[in-house]
Amino acid sequence: MPVRVVIGAQWGDEGKGKIVALLSNKTNYVVRYQGGANAGHTLKFDGKTFVLHLIPSGIFHEGTTCVIGNGVVIDPIKLLEEIEAVRKVGAEPMGRLLVSETAHVILPYHKALDQARENARSEVLKIGTTGRGIGPAYVHKTARIGLRMMDLLDAKSMREKIEYALDDTNVLLDLHGGETVQTSDVLQQMIECGEKLRPYITNTTQLLHEALESDKDILLEGAQGALLDLDHGTYPFVTSSSPTSGGACTGTGIPPTALTHVMGITKAYCTRVGNGPFPTELHDDLGAEIRKIGGEFGATTGRPRRCGWIDLVALKYAARINGMNELTITKLDVLDHLEEVKIGVAYKLDGKIITHFPLNTNDLERVEPVYETFKGWQTSTNGIKTFEEFPTQAQDFLNAICSYVGVPLKMISTGPDRSETIRLN
Ligand code: IMP
Questions:
Q1: Residue 274 near ligand 1, beta carbon < 6 Å
Q2: Is 209 a residue of the active site?
Q3: Predicted model pTM
Q4: Domain identity same for 60 and 180
Q5: Domain of 315: which CATH number?
Q6: N or C: which end of the chain has fewer CB within 10 A?
Q7: Is 2 close to ligand 1, i.e. is its CB under 6 Å away?
C-alpha cells in the first residue's frame, strides 16, 4: 500500500493542508513529521475555514488515524487548545490522534528565547521567525537538554530536566534582554498538560511499523517547505527542521525504502514569509495584486507574504533533493486575470547564466532571474474538471513547469475548496 510524502516544494504555504485533507479520505494514517505550531495548514470545507497548526490535516476524516511523529516539536498548551478547537467543529481526536512519546516539547522558555534572540538581532540578521519557540526547542534537542513528551508524564524527572535546561537558558535570556524563567513558573503547567495529554502519548514508531506490516495506506505530511530545510534551504533564513523527504523518515521512523510517492506541492507562483533571498520576488504593484487575490497572509502570524513568479531553478532543486515523483500545482486561479505570466528558468550571476540553485545565500541574494513569458489565459479556471478543459495558454504554462522540472503533474488546484481540484492520470 502506498506510503506518500507530501512536501512543500517552495518556502512553505503551498496549500499542502488542502491536498493532505483531500488524500486523507483514502488514507489510514496521516503523520506530521517535523516542525511545530509554526505551520498553519488552512482547510476550507462546507463554507468554513479552519487552520491547523499541529494536528495532521486528516483529522476531519473519521476513518483516519492522525499521528504527530517524533520529529515534531510540540507546544503542549497549543496542542490542547487545538484538540478543543477540533472537537468544537465536530471531530473527536481521542482515540484518533496519537502523539509520539519521543517528540520534543516546546516549553514557554523556548518561545521567550526565540523572541528575545530575534529582537536582539540586527535588521540584516533577523530571520523573521514565527516566534513559536521552534529554533530553541530543536537546539535543546540536539544539545540533549530537551524534554520529550514522555517526560511530561513523570513529574520528578521533569523537574530535574527543566532545572538543568534553565541553567543555560536563563543566561541566554538575560544576554538577549528577555525575562528569566524559574522552574516553578512552568513545572505545574507542564504536569497538568501531561495529565491531559496522557491518553494521546504513545510509541508511534511501533504503531507505524505495524501499519506498514499490515499494508496500511500512510501519508506523511510535511510542514513549511523544501527551501526552508535546515540543511538544504537558504541558510540561515530557514526553519530548524527538515521538511524534505529525508526528514519524513527520521521524523517518523519509517524507512526510506518504504516511501512509494514523494509529492511536491508548488503554487503556480511563489511566496515567502520572513526574511531571506527570493530571486523572483515582485516588488511592484503586481506583487501586491497577487498577494491580495491569493490571500497571501501568514496562517500562523498573519504577516503579509512576499509574492513573485514561480522559480523553476529553485523548484528543480527541490525536486532533486526530495526525489519528487509527482507534482501538484496549486492556486492557478490566482493568475487567471493576467495578460501575461512568467516562469523563472535561469539566473544571471556576475554576468553568467546559471541553471543550478546556488547554495551560497549571498550569491542567491545577488542573482537576477531570467524569465520565459507566456500569454495569460484571462478566463476563470474555477470549476474546470479536466486538464483538456483548460485554455491552451494555461495548458502551455503547466506543461512548461513540469517539463522543466522533469516531474509529472498529478493534481491541479483551482480554488480553496476540496472540490476545486483536478487529478491527472
Ligand atoms: P521558525 O520556523 O519560526 O523558526 O521560522 C524560520 C523561518 O521559517 C521564518 O522565515 C518563517 O517565516 C518561516 N516559516 C516557518 N513556518 C512557516 C510556514 O509554515 N510557512 C512559511 N514559512 C514558515
A1: yes
A2: no
A3: 0.96
A4: no
A5: 3.90.170.10
A6: C
A7: no
Distance CA 46, CA 40 (A): 19
| Residue 140: active-site member | no
Sequence-ordered list of residues with C-beta below 8 angstroms from that of 383, at least 6 positions apart, any chain: 414, 415, 420
Query: For residue 339, how far is its CA from the centre of ligand 1 (angstroms)?
Result: 32
CA–CA gap between residue 10 and residue 228 (Å, rounded):
8
Q: Is the CB of 128 under 6 A from ligand 1?
A: yes
Q: Could you tell me if 19 and 79 lie in one domain?
A: yes
Helix (H) or strand (E) holding 310: strand 306-311
Q: Whose CA is nearest to atom 19 of ligand 1?
A: 39
Catalytic residue among 13, 75, 311, 333: 13
Task: Collect all residues with Cβ–Cβ distance below 8 Å to 101 and sequence separation of at least 6.
Answer: 148, 149, 150, 201, 202, 203, 204
Q: What is the domain-level CATH number for residue 164?
A: 1.10.300.10
Ligand 1 and 132: CB distance under 6 A: yes
Say how many C-beta atoms besides its own lie within 10 A of residue 268's C-beta.
26
Q: Are 71 and 153 in a shared domain? A: no
Tens of pLDDT along the chain (425 residues) come to 899 999 999 999 999 989 998 999 889 999 999 999 999 888 877 778 888 999 998 999 989 999 999 999 999 999 999 999 999 998 999 999 999 999 999 999 999 999 999 999 999 899 999 999 999 999 999 999 999 999 999 999 999 999 999 999 999 999 999 999 999 999 999 999 999 999 999 999 999 999 999 999 999 999 999 999 999 999 999 999 999 999 999 999 999 999 999 999 999 999 999 999 999 999 999 999 999 999 999 888 889 999 999 999 999 999 999 999 999 999 999 999 999 999 999 999 999 999 999 999 999 999 999 999 999 999 999 889 999 999 999 999 999 999 999 999 999 998 888 889 999 97
Q: Please name the residue that has the C-alpha cell 523572541.
A: 115
